[in-house]
Batch of 2 targets.
Target 1
Amino acid sequence: MADYGLKGQVAVVTGSTSGIGQAMAHALAGEGVNVVLNGFGDPAKIEADRAALEKSAGVRAIYHGADMTKPGEIADLVAFAQREFGRLDILLNNAGVQHVAPVEEFPIEKWDQIIAINLTSAFHATRAAVPIMKAQGRGRIVNLASAHGLVASPFKSAYVAAKHGIVGFTKAIALETARSGITVNAICPGYVKTPLVEAQIADQAKARGIPVDRVVEDVILAAQPNKSFVEYPHLAGMLLYLVSDMGASTTGAALSVDGGWTAA
């Protein structure tokens, strides 16, 4: 098993109380990284999961409930990591939400929410993290984009706009920090069977007027040539490479983990 040399480092993972973010936080903790968890959910479950992760991985796992639509709370999330641990090595901007609807029916409040959480929150977290990482002379910022950061699908105007924005933001900050010991990259997954995607199945069925049992084969995985959901370990492997010293020369990249979706 590879030793990524991450023991004792500190990571902030937004949106890490479920789905991809939770899996990524667990992968980092498994390599000895102390993690700051963030996200919504039942407080008792969040606390139970936090305590279980801390015990199983032998690291410190702490929670901050920053709302990803509120800039002040996002800045405090990053400051909290520095206050608690004295440093910040890894920032994973993962928080995301989704809504599926034709553009003429797309609720304005849903557009604003998706842009705020999926795109603007990454700006606020990165803005707060970069000075800390510059002072350390090293840092790793990874943005969870999507295949939809590279290509589009109908009925997802806000999500596609936000994820394309994340890819562009990644490139811009990579150039700004290229000589600071900081790398900035985006991971672009295809479909992962997260709670977010499972909710989309019903939404897509409604939007397209087709039965739920056809959505996975004909819509969800239609664009993935391997016809398989991306699994959490596939994403974790990419993350661990990027945040380790092995990934030191990789910056400004939008790395596809999508079963061939964007190859066509």
Note: The two ends are 33 Å apart (CA to CA).
Target 2
Amino acid sequence: MEMIIVSSEQQMRLIMLFSRTTAKMSDKALIKDLDAHKVNSSVYPAFKSAQDLRVERIKLPFGDDKTASLEGGDFLYRYLAKGYICLGDYSGQPKPDLSAWGVRSVRKQPRVGFGL
């Protein structure tokens, strides 16, 4: 199982992609193929065209959704704590669990995404 985070440091925004298998695409191909991913956010078109997009791949334990959820939440929290906004509404499995960091709810920004 894999969680892929595509982020822009300049825009302070990110998207998360989840896969039950490991993605076979290179980072460069993944960035070029961002149109294939439907993200419900009004700022997603500007994000896709950012020049500083970076890909981080996180291997999550397969078959143990609880541990995968905690590990995914750990990586997501690192970004959100720096002020990043996650674009769109959350979709995918496993859902990152931020409770280990004391986060009970996230701040929603209508038509944009969520942050701390």
Note: The chain has one domain: 2-115.
